[in-house]
């Protein structure tokens, strides 16, 4: 396995009003987005080209919405700084552009 293009720990991952984990991990590696619990169990994963994201402009800048395999997740990236959601969306966009290149 190669180094992840994006890695964030301590991420609150929720679905609707339900919190799935308070200290989860988000990885973008080898053209896939992976959501993990605090214990390393996979919540969901998908190829980056199948993931839809949104970082609300006027909302809290540490939150991003991600749709993975048709399921919507609210990601709160607390430990990564104020503009962490924008960095996550940028990393996902960069990974999409890199898919299919030799």
From TrEMBL:
Protein name per UniProt: YokE-like PH domain-containing protein
Source organism per UniProt: Actinacidiphila oryziradicis
